[in-house]
Amino acid sequence: MDNYILAIETSCDETAAAIIKNGTEIISNVVSSQIESHKRFGGVVPEIASRHHVEQVTLVLEEALKQAEMTPQQLSAVAVTEGPGLVGALLIGINAAKVFAFVHGLPLIGTHHIAGHIYANALVQPMEFPLLALVVSGGHTELVLMKEHGSFEVIGETRDDAAGEAYDKVARVLNMPYPGGPHIDRLAHEATEAVSFPRAWLEEGSYDFSFSGLKSAVINYKHNMDQRGEEIIPTQVAKGFQDSVVEVLTAKTLRAARQYEVKQVIAAGGVSANKGLRTSLEQTFTEEGIPFYVPPLKLCTDNAAMIGAAAYQMYGAGIRGNLAMNGRPGMELTNWVK
Amino acid sequence: MIWLGIETANAPLSIAVVKDGKVLAEVVQNIKLTHSVGAMPAIEEVLSKAGITPAEIDAVTVSEGPGSYTGVRIGVTLAKTFAWAIQKPLVGVSSLKALAANVKMSDAVICALFDARRQNVYAGVYNGAQLNTVIEDYHDHIDGLLEKLKALQKPVLFVGTDVEVYFDKMQEVLGENALHVPSTLDLPRASELIAIAQQQKLPSIEATHAFVPQYRRIAEAEANWLKEQKKGQL
Question: Which run of H or of E encompasses A97?
Fold first, then answer.
């Protein structure tokens, strides 16, 4: 019998619902973005995000069912992002999911947001293990090793800013609007020369990342130029910054892929939409002969389809949540297989 | 006609099922348990005790605020999703009016209030058995509220678990006209919420999507942003 999961995601500033068939096929995928509301604040304001989620949540649920031409009775389970994320935002999706599951007598599955980002790839092609995932977004920068479905080992993570966070902050230095990532990416591609910024390799052998030093270097550079009365060239600053981020991300991912002899490398999360990063990873792993995949843009940014894909594997493993489920803003990525 | 009432606007929680004007089951609690954990199991429990299935419910009502932002949102999200899922109407009731209803048998002026921190309160002032509005629900400094109440020159019955925070001040300004109800009447009850909702016209089922909390206060980030805009114009 086919499995259909209704998934809900409200961990940050997108209110999303999707229906996924057998963990691999998108039947419907609805995302209501709040980016326009947060632009004027220069970033996501948690209280505003929560207010928007309440306004949108039943609309996106109805739209997901409507686009799928399905009734709740045809569903196998309800899945929702349990964490990590903004707690007030998470709670909207979780409480909506609990009611929906209760009213329709469906099992409830609480899913990890990063597991979702990784499983976005299962919607594009089958995952093969061992698999290495580079998760890069506004809130996360992690290298995750998977030996099988439901097994996650975080082998490296950022010690300070997430890559996307650094992008947004540097964009602000260059007077670019929020969200800054796409603007930096675009500016970087317009430059032929780059300002030289440091690379944060950390201790030898470490798979961890650090972007706050790089961010400070950009701020200091601008400051010094201002003091000397010189104009910075935004395209060259953008390229210098992006070159540093991309080089470190690519090199560490490559080294980990070799060490763990993975069969597949995948990129996930909003920053994996970055052209500079995609190109670098694609070239590197083509040369290395390891299959590299990155999901299409609409599956890189926050969405519920990815939550449904991850929840399908949890469903099969017998994982179930209950009506007392709470939002877990600092939820760790743990295994659901023994 | 079977109603489900949901009240999570502040620290207390109340869930009730009322059939044809009679309370079948009700939970009222004031414990340190976050509504995101406690509310849904309480709904399940109350429905189970009342022997009512979700599909049998004819209408849902919720305490729409003001109150704790997160608390109000949890209640509204639960109620909205419930009403939409069973395709029945959703009625919003003021959290302050529902609380004032605890003492509606009195002829006195009733002031329901919740602490909004830093000497601020959410307050609603009602009159008599019909709970006519004297001062519409709003957010104010406690001093501002007390000035307005003083001008009424009548005894004021204060209701709510947060009244004790400000009672000294209330007595200072209003003297003998400041009265605090017995503490057994300080907790909101979802059955009172339903009693008020029953008097209102049922909205269309489609209206549920657009249902939002009544925060009675704009978000801090938005207030700061508006302030900056004003500065820019000067």
Answer: helix A87-104
